[in-house]
Amino acid sequence: MAMKRLRISDIVKGTDMVGREAQVKGWVRTKRGSKNVAFIALNDGSCIHNLQIVVDTEKFDEELLKKITTGAAINVIGKLVESQGKGQSVEMVAEKIELYGVADPLTYPLQKKGHTMEFLREIAHLRPRTNTFGAVFRIRHNMAIAIHSFFHEKGFYYFHTPIITASDCEGAGQMFKVTTLDLDCPPRNDEGTIDFKHDFFGRHANLTVSGQLEGELAAMALGSIYTFGPTFRAENSNTPRHLAEFWMIEPEMAFYEIEDNMDLAEEFIKYLVKWALDHCADDIEFLNNMIDKELRSRLEFVLQHDFVRLGYTEGIKILEDAVAKGQKFEFPIYWGADLAAEHERYLVEQHFKRPVILTDYPKEIKSFYMKQNDDGKTVRAMDVLFPKIGEIIGGSQREEDYDKLLTRANEMGVPMDDIWWYMDTRKYGTAPHSGFGLGFERLLLFVTGMSNIRDVIPFPRTPNNADF
């Protein structure tokens, strides 16, 4: 019977490994040694740790060993022994080595030296092999598992909303068009404009900016649902916080008031942070040491403190007082302003020194579907603000009153032809309901300590960049 491969993560965490015969497969991180003995650091992607392979060079073909360089893929069978060196408790004494694939040291770009994040983005097909991106993408996986676990435990249903849609949830107009028409010679109508009746869907279609509207429909039937999938914004923002393609988590809950919504958002974030600390300890420790020295303490801080709940009007007053005392902001602050990241981070990092949930924004800067307050000026919106990130969650109680929703949609120029089905839910069994959206990559920025959102998604899509 053939020997079964062991993952390196199982070996380094195991308690009874010493003395066992084992087989490991992976990629060479480094090779060093003398004439008689070589030491190969092997990594298979299962954890941040390498397994040291000790090679008696006299027992192996010299030409084979020459080809085992950084980046090469190999299969090793040997005996696990107590390590004589520092940094690991167990190592393997090689008995058999098979070379799967070479990596020419003259051209392989991931040699043992420091690489900038900018350079690694240019080789996104190889950067997962680095320690940093291996850690980031393992954490990304764990956060996805934690999201499904949280909502499943709370009785939510995972609901799949369309990626191709004819509606614009945000009313922003910054959407990617989807078409099968010949762009060089599109069909035209009598007015000379493009005739979309000849297109695949027979009308304009776009990539979704949010699954919220469809999610609301599901919540009004299933009670509590969540979506988790890709969304797209054709926003020409070339910043460390924006992507054209990113993932969103959007729960929608029937019979939830704004306070219930805030409670869920705080519980959700804390659950995810705790999951990361419990299940990704080694990767977080590596990122804490190499990327952000305050990462672990910042994650633990979130678990230890309640989030501040603050009205927009009070928040504006705090910011205006700060300006009066000499605080400098790039963007002006006044009642009615849509807060910039610098304003949000001031409230979180300098004034309160903990996460903030900001509520009751002016209706003029928020979407048509948010429930209007009795003052006629504000809506029951909520944004969760985090250190280093700014806004990490945006949500609201949704307007359930048909007439109010219709009036606001008309005021904002939302075409009824696009959302008639959404309006129907306010005609038939309407009820209070709420929801929010969490940008998955913004969550990952916080959990990993990375500073650029392009470094927490495998293949970033940004202005002028759709490589790989």
From TrEMBL:
One of its GO terms (biological process) is asparaginyl-tRNA aminoacylation. Transmembrane segments: none annotated. This is Asparagine--tRNA ligase. It is found in: Cytoplasm. Its main location: cytoplasm. Keywords: Aminoacyl-tRNA synthetase, ATP-binding, Cytoplasm, Ligase, Nucleotide-binding, Protein biosynthesis. SUPFAM superfamilies: Class II aaRS and biotin synthetases, Nucleic acid-binding proteins. The gene is asnS. It comes from Porphyromonas cangingivalis. Belongs to the class-II aminoacyl-tRNA synthetase family. Pfam families: tRNA-synt_2 (PF00152), tRNA_anti-codon (PF01336).
